[in-house]
């Protein structure tokens, strides 16, 4: 009750951008994941997206100028995962950079002989520790289709939630009613099982990128929670149940 009152007071004091009706309707129509939300959730999501647009800075990379429609689509997809957790879970995001295509990130790796190898890796999205989300626009367009489990915006937002308690490790701070020990047991078992499947050349039910690190496992399974909960439930029912508690309506 008191929380609700505080939330209401906050909603009167924060800045907010009114989203153009036509752009909002076009955005919802273009993204099946948004269309699948009920009227109340969409109204809350629109309000939260308006706040996101007012508070976060949008930039373009490689000559792209983000249009209002692009920013609204990114904002709605970014706010959806925290619709029930609360907007403050996105406090860690300060700016968003949208590239017209996959962007190249410079990597340096030292091999066993101490030789440093440089390479450029093309990425669809990246979350930086100090509040920048980088996204490739074609991948944003491929997000929210509820077909292949792919959602680059939810993936990067999951990393932002993950690092809120200090490290990218697949263990975000949990709402009070959740059992942190059980979370660790369920996620560790599923992460190990996925790695064993891949070692045995068994085709996994979710994107094998999840097996690369616990933070990627959390980010990829978060994508499936929203995009293909059926696949996630079939692959890792205990993780599906944990994510339903984490992202769900309290
Ligand atoms: Zn990732």
What does it look like?
By secondary structure, the protein is an alpha/beta fold. It folds into 2 domains: 13-143, Cyclin A, domain 1; 169-250, Collagenase (Catalytic Domain) (3-Layer(aba) Sandwich). 49% of the residues lie in helices and 13% in strands. The chain has a 4-stranded mixed sheet with strand order 1-2-6-5. A two-stranded antiparallel sheet has the order 3-4. Helix 7 crosses helix 9 and helix 9 packs across helix 10. The mean pLDDT is 93. Residues 155, 159, 216, 219 line the site of zinc ion (ZN). The site of zinc ion has 4 residues, from helix 7 and helix 9.
List keywords for this structure.
single chain; 250 residues; alpha/beta; Cyclin A, domain 1; Collagenase (Catalytic Domain); 4-stranded mixed beta sheet; two-stranded antiparallel ribbon; 11 helices; 49% helix; 13% strand; binds zinc ion
Would you tell me which CATH topology of the largest domain applies?
Cyclin A, domain 1
Q: How many helices?
A: 11
Number of domains: 2
What is the helix/strand order?
Answer: HHHHEHEEEEEHHHHHH
What small molecules accompany the polymer chains?
zinc ion
Indicate the percent of residues in helices: 40-55%
Gross morphology is globular
What's the architecture of the largest domain, going by CATH? Orthogonal Bundle
The CATH C-level name of the largest domain is Mainly Alpha
* Strand residue content: 5-15%
Tell me the major beta sheet: 4 strands, mixed
Q: Which spans of ≥5 residues are poorly predicted at pLDDT below 50?
A: none
- Give the rounded overall mean pLDDT: 93
The neighbouring-strand order within the major sheet is 1-2-6-5
The radius of gyration over CA amounts to 18 Å
**Distance separating the two termini:** 13 Å
> So what's the oligomer here?
single chain
Relevant CATH superfamily of the largest domain: Glucose-regulated metallo-peptidase M90, N-terminal domain
The count of DSSP E runs of length 2 or more, i.e. the number of strands, is 6
What class would the helix/strand composition place it in? alpha/beta
